[in-house]
Automatic annotation (TrEMBL), chain A:
Pfam families: DUF2157. Keywords: Membrane, Transmembrane, Transmembrane helix. InterPro entries: DUF2157. Residues 13-159 form the DUF2157 domain. The keyword Nucleus does not apply. The chain crosses the membrane at residues 45-63, 69-89, 110-128, 134-153, 160-180, 221-240, 252-269, 276-298, 304-327. This is DUF2157 domain-containing protein. It comes from the Bacteria. It comes from Hymenobacter negativus. The keyword Transmembrane applies.
UniProtKB/TrEMBL annotation, chain B:
The keyword NAD does not apply. It comes from Hymenobacter negativus. The chain crosses the membrane at residues 54-75, 81-99, 111-129, 144-163, 170-188, 194-211, 232-251, 271-289, 296-315, 321-339. It comes from the Bacteria. This is DUF4401 domain-containing protein. Keywords: Membrane, Transmembrane, Transmembrane helix.
Length: 344, 398
């Protein structure tokens, strides 16, 4: 005789409080018992891993046998693949709208991304092998941006937009991958820092414009995430440099710009109820505020510095904690119902 | 005083509401019923979404770090014990107060307070031992006589903290302390050194048996929800240690390390370890599939990958590019065909997404790690390395 299934404590509890009728509870217990185990994400991860391994292995094989295959054939194959990807994506494209286009096909989404990656590969290959752009590297880096940005709007694809903005930034001389900002770039170079700040502010302006005017408002997220990371990280390093070189006036102007940008992010975070931007804005604003605090404390007489720091610095961090804890009250309700994201 | 710091109905209510929400998505419960359930079981605690929890944790931690540093400075470094005691006491007092007054429940602030309090208590214990009780002042011992007692005390402290606060990371730390004690016990004698892998396997097995006892004992009570994350952590770590201590590569390289060999040599009982290296991952995967146990299945897959790495480490079976093509083809075909054939559920398995909200997305992780690879040709002559992020950061959830 089979054992009866173990009693679900939640079902018994709900029954005891008369929130579920007995028959329904029995039906739920049975459905839970018969529920299949989903391998969806595991299998998709394996599929992705398999395709990556296959592509990497084939790439290495082609590279080793390049003499017997010939460059022309490889370029032709890449180009054909790219055209096929773009063709498939174009076939399933939803008609253009300034709002968020409905998703017609998941495959088309991925193939569009793959087509864009193949475009970069193709361009790099042609440049490396035949020097198509000569030494005009600016033109070579601007090409992907010129192709991807219109594509992003035409296909309504935020991934392609991010790729286009990344290409734009590398044209300006930078990488905008959010996490790599501080590790990969030489941020101590003045020119690059100024360029990064300028581009970041421009991208943020584009983001605020799209959100405000409702033209591809859901792109604002990408614009603002990349732009704010770029501009604020550049400003933060500028601020550090101003501290080391003892230039308080310059430092103060950086602080003002940083706090303005953070205020803009805070506005967007409130509008979208987006906690990401809130934490980002709070982090950078805290950094700027700490600079002000250090400047303030260092003007005090020597005897007071240690005692006051003991209270002021932990207090500043505690204030941020209090800010987070009371966020619900501060953010209470969006200013307007969020225009861009269904769930953000 | 009750043993548990948080009210027992918080985790129970959370789990119950999650269940009810899932039943509603499966259309086993009507929206009106779900609303009634949510009214009857309100969430009485404070636990924000995870980006905020991370922010809260970081800023609390910064504040505590500065306070700790300044409290050391203020005592002028003369009495670190007093400063440590003060700091540790303050942390735990704040923690208890926060839970009671602000109803924090694993909300970042209480985690940071708990870790800081425990860290200061552990370093205080260690400091007292190294400064006053060990014969060689301040020197570090990895032998039984010196470290055993302090490790036992730390383990006791961590276990007490787990029992009271039910924190996953503290559970992991306690498990590591337990393993350290077992390892020290083994390393102390030549016989123990030889039997070290079996000692570790024994420790992991006893932890698993303890896990089974506990889950059975707690099943159906509020405590099962209260300690759910600790039990999960214990199971995952014990399974991982059980596999790793039988893995051929780990055993062989540790053996070489212990005997100061420049190049690792074949180990005794090698066939046994071959069998364990090959068999344990398959066992985990089978058990994971049969018991619908996702953590075991994922561990099995990771273990299988590490076993293949072990194999390739000692034998170059195929040239890497051929192996990649072969493995890639096999994986693609296997995963693709399973994705298709399991679409109506078979053998209790399905390839359709279930309707649990997902916290950890393996696919996204792999994509984020590998999506940079295709940009390599751009380095062909570009001045700035032409960085490409495959749309990194463009998928916003929060």
């Amino acid at each position: 005789m089979p054992l009866p299934p173990p009693l679900d404590p939640y079902l018994t509890e709900l029954q005891a409080r008369n929130l579920l009728p007995l028959t329904q509870a029995a039906a739920i217990a049975e459905a839970d018992q018969a529920r299949p185990f989903s391998l969806h994400y595991e299998l998709r991860a394996l599929l992705y891993l398999g395709i990556t391994l296959l592509a990497g292995g084939l790439g290495a094989l082609i590279y080793q046998n390049i003499d017997s295959i010939g460059h022309g054939v490889i370029i032709a194959v890449i180009a054909a693949l790219m055209v096929a990807c773009f063709g498939y994506a174009a076939r399933y494209r939803a008609p253009f709208t300034w709002g968020m286009a409905p998703k017609t096909s998941v495959g088309a989404d991925y193939l569009l991304l793959l087509g864009c990656l193949l475009f970069v590969v193709l361009e790099g290959y042609v440049q490396y092998q035949y020097g198509l752009f000569g030494s005009r590297y600016g033109l070579a880096t601007a090409m992907p941006a010129l192709v991807f940005l219109p594509l992003a709007y035409w296909f309504d694809h935020r991934g392609v937009l991010a790729m286009g903005l990344t290409a734009l930034a590398s044209w300006v001389g930078l990488t905008v991958a959010p996490l790599a900002v501080l590790t990969e770039n030489e941020f101590w170079n003045d020119h690059i820092r100024a360029a990064a700040t300028g581009l970041g502010v421009l991208l943020m302006a584009a983001g605020f414009y799209s959100e405000h005017s409702g033209r591809k408002a859901h792109f604002a997220f990408t614009y603002l995430l990349l732009g704010s990371n770029l501009a604020l990280a550049a400003l933060a390093t500028s601020l550090l440099k101003a501290t080391f070189h003892d230039e308080p006036a310059l430092g103060l102007s950086y602080v003002v710009i940083m706090l303005t940008l953070c205020a803009g992010l805070f506005w967007y975070a409130r509008r979208l109820q987006s906690y990401w931007f809130l934490v980002l804005a709070a982090g950078y604003a805290y950094f700027a505020a700490c600079y002000l605090l250090v400047q303030l404390v260092s003007t005090l007489p020597n005897g007071l510095i240690l005692g006051l720091s003991f209270f002021l610095f932990p207090l500043s961090a505690l204030l941020v904690v209090l800010f987070f804890v009371n966020l619900k009250k501060i953010m209470h309700g969006p200013v307007k119902p969020p225009a861009s994201f269904p769930k953000a | 005083m009750k043993l548990q710091a948080y009210p027992l109905d918080w985790p129970f209510t959370t789990a119950l509401r999650a269940r009810a929400a899932r039943w509603q998505r499966q259309q086993l419960v009507s929206p009106a019923q779900l609303a009634a359930i949510e009214v009857a079981y309100p969430l009485a605690y404070y636990r924000p979404v995870w980006p905020l929890r991370v922010g809260l944790f970081i800023f609390t931690w910064i504040a505590l770090g500065m306070m700790g540093g300044f409290s050391l400075l203020l005592t002028d470094g003369h009495s670190p014990i007093a400063a440590g005691l003060f700091f540790c006491g303050a942390c735990f007092a704040m923690l208890e107060l926060m839970i009671k007054e602000r109803r924090f429940y694993h909300a970042g602030v209480d985690n940071a307070l708990l870790y800081s309090g425990l860290a200061s208590a552990v370093s205080l214990l260690y400091y007292i031992f190294s400064d006053h009780l060990w014969p060689f002042n301040g020197s570090y011992h990895l032998d039984l006589g010196g470290s055993f007692l302090v490790l036992l005390l730390i383990l006791a402290l961590l276990v007490a903290a787990v029992l009271r606060y039910a924190d996953g990371i503290v559970t992991a730390a306690a498990f590591v302390a337990f393993l350290l004690i077992v390892a020290l016990f083994g390393l102390n004698s030549p016989l123990g050194q030889a039997l070290l892998p079996f000692l570790m396997m024994g420790a992991a097995t006893s932890a698993l048996l303890g896990y089974r006892q506990l889950t059975r004992r707690l099943a159906g009570t509020y405590l099962a929800d209260y300690y759910a994350r600790c039990l999960l952590m214990l199971k995952v770590l014990a399974l991982a240690v059980l596999y790793l201590s039988g893995n051929y590569l780990v055993v062989r390289e540790t053996n070489a390390e212990l005997h100061h060999q420049f190049k690792s040599e074949q180990i005794p009982f090698a066939p046994l370890f071959y069998a364990l290296t090959a068999g344990v991952p398959l066992l985990y995967i089978t058990l994971g599939l049969r018991r619908a146990d996702r953590s075991m299945l994922l561990l099995g897959m990771l273990a299988l990958a590490f076993s293949l790495f072990t194999l390739r480490y000692y034998h170059s079976v195929l040239p890497p590019e051929i192996a990649a093509v072969a493995a890639g083809t096999l994986l693609t075909i296997l995963a693709g065909s399973l994705l298709r054939s399991l679409r109506p559920a078979r053998y209790g398995l399905t390839s359709l997404p279930d309707d649990e909200p997902r916290h950890f997305n393996l696919e996204n992780l792999i994509q984020a790690q590998t999506a940079h690879a295709p940009s390599a040709p751009a380095g062909g002559g570009f001045e700035f390395g032409g960085g490409q992020s495959g749309g990194g950061g463009a998928t916003g959830q929060f």
